[in-house]
Amino acid sequence: MISVGIKELKAKLSNYVDKVRHGEEVVITEHGKEVALVLPISKERRAIKSLMESGKAKWSGGKPEGMEKIRIKGKPLSKTVLEERR
């Protein structure tokens, strides 16, 4: 993981974007304190974008629709988590 101050980032932005493109994570600092993290685009996001561009999927940015009639059997996940913590 690379750490870079805002001043240097502005001066060499394309260089840091290239590093991120190749899988590197970049922490942006301001006066020595971390303020942001720049990450490469995930494989999942690329797959979803590909499906949308091919017309096989649509997404308007909201929550998925059509889940109203799906029923899940068993106890709630929250209850399972609390039991595992004991």
Order of strands across the main sheet: 1-2-3
**Can you give the mean pLDDT?**
88
Shape, principal axes of CA atoms = flat
Specify the CATH class of the domain at 2-42. Answer: Alpha Beta
Rg over C-alpha atoms, rounded to the nearest angstrom? 21 Å
Helix percentage range: 40-55%
**Global structural class:** alpha+beta
CATH superfamily of the domain at 2-42: YefM-like domain
Question: What fraction of residues sit in β-strands?
Answer: 15-25%
User: What does the largest sheet look like?
Assistant: 3 strands, mixed
Level-2 CATH architecture of the domain at 2-42 = 3-Layer(aba) Sandwich
What is the total tally of β strands? Answer: 3
Order of helices and strands: EHHEEHH
Q: What is the CATH fold-level name of the domain at 2-42? A: YefM-like fold
Low-confidence runs: none
What does it look like?
With 86 residues, this protein is an alpha+beta fold. The protein has a domain at 2-42: YefM-like domain (YefM-like fold), CATH 3.40.1620.10. Helices cover 41% and strands 17% of the residues. The protein is built from four helices and three strands; from the N terminus they run E-H-H-E-E-H-H. The chain has helices spanning 6-11, 13-21, 43-53, 77-85; strands at residues 2-5, 26-30, 33-38. Strands 1-2-3 form a three-stranded mixed β-sheet. Strand 2 and strand 3 form a beta hairpin. The chain is flat, with a radius of gyration of 21 Å. The model has no long low-confidence stretch (mean pLDDT 88).
